[in-house]
Write a structure and sequence with these properties.
By secondary structure, this protein is α+β, with helices and mostly antiparallel strands. Helix content is 36%, strand content 29%. The longest helix has 25 residues. It is elongated.
Length: 70
């Protein structure tokens, strides 16, 4: 993991197509902006985990239905 200090307006570049900018600092948090190609999904970690859990439940329900139908 890369750990760096940045000030408001400063950026971190990831490859040639992704830029992370510090937008605001305060109230116990940091607001960042992420610029990336539209085909690259940018999702908060907690939302990604929630989506994974929902997909897992849907797959389990579909499997249970298949087992009942067999």
């Amino acid at each position: 993991m890369l750990v760096v200090s940045r000030k408001i307006g400063e950026r971190i570049l990831i490859g040639d197509k992704i830029a992370v900018t510090v937008v605001k600092i305060g109230n116990g948090g940091v607001r960042i902006g992420v610029e990336a190609p539209p085909e690259l999904a940018i999702v908060r970690e907690e939302l990604a985990e929630q989506l994974r859990q929902e997909e897992l439940l849907a797959l389990e329900a579909a499997q249970a239905q298949t087992d009942v139908d067999s």
